[in-house]
Amino acid sequence: MALPFVVVLPLLIVVAAGVYYIYNEVIRFMSKSLVRNKVVVITDAVSGVGTECAHLFHKGGARLILGGTNWDKLESLYDSLTSDADPRETFAPKLVILDFSDMDSMEDVVSEVLECYGCVDVLICNSSMKLKAPIQSVSLEMDRNIMDVNYFGPSALAKGVLPTMISRRSGHILLVNSIQGRLAVPFRSSYAASKHAAQAFFDCLRAEVEEYGIVVSTISHTFIDASHHPLAAGEPAPKTNALAAFIASQLTHGVRPSVLANEILQTVNRKRKEVVLAHPIPRVALCLRSFCPPFLFAVLAAGVKDSVLTEQM
Predict the structure, then answer these.
(1) For residue range 217-263, what is the model confidence (pLDDT) as tens digits?
(2) Which residues span the membrane (predicted)?
(3) Is 151 one of the annotated active-site residues of the chain?
(4) CA-CA distance, 165 to 76, in Å (whole number)?
(5) Residues 20, 78, 151, 191: which is the catalytic one?
(6) Domain count across the chain
(7) Is 302 domain-assigned?
């Protein structure tokens, strides 16, 4: 006697969920084993995403070189990584002061990084500087600072480690960029400009070094959501245009640091060249930017007028 559909369907769902879970666990285990003994540089290891990456790659047996602007935070991260680690399975990380806002130090930074192990297998450029302000209020000095951190710094470091990668005919350079490297949003002029520049640079680099067996990847994500900030009790909700409010809520649906770190690990292991880590609405906006820009421009302008997108992005 055949089982009724109402019984079969839940069973199929449970089986599918189990298979999916096992698949993810196998992929996660394989991902960790693939980075074992690899020399991995994380440019901003003390950020939320950088710290998550450091833990993932350290557990996977990578030889980490952790960069950051604050030595105390780097030492604290070092302690957290090594306190419970098995020295037979992991390597003690190397620490390097790395400040992209100080471009004069980049030559010394490159030398220090290469002195750690003599080469770099994976370079993860995740440093970033953000700014939300009207264009007319942003100084040229601030524009330059953002370009240094978001564009000139990563490109200079990539150029610095490139000769060793070319001579070994292997390597992986990964840029943790932003969806705003593809889609400019109001009141993010300097930030979006720097992310567009970085995206273009690494796209060019990818084509130029492919013949040497070097992989170049970019991850374009929405904003990093490290915490939630609900309205305070009794605080009235702002009056907004319904359409603009809906789009704003979708565009501001961020990605958690742990999720982004896992995506970085998967990208390194699977050698993906390009990843867009975003929800459907930002993806639709990217399509509109290419195929129907007047409509997107109108929506963004409506968001500025109603102070919805400007407040929430």
Answers:
(1) 999 998 887 764 444 444 444 555 565 555 555 555 678 999 999 99
(2) 6-23
(3) no
(4) 31
(5) 191
(6) 1
(7) no
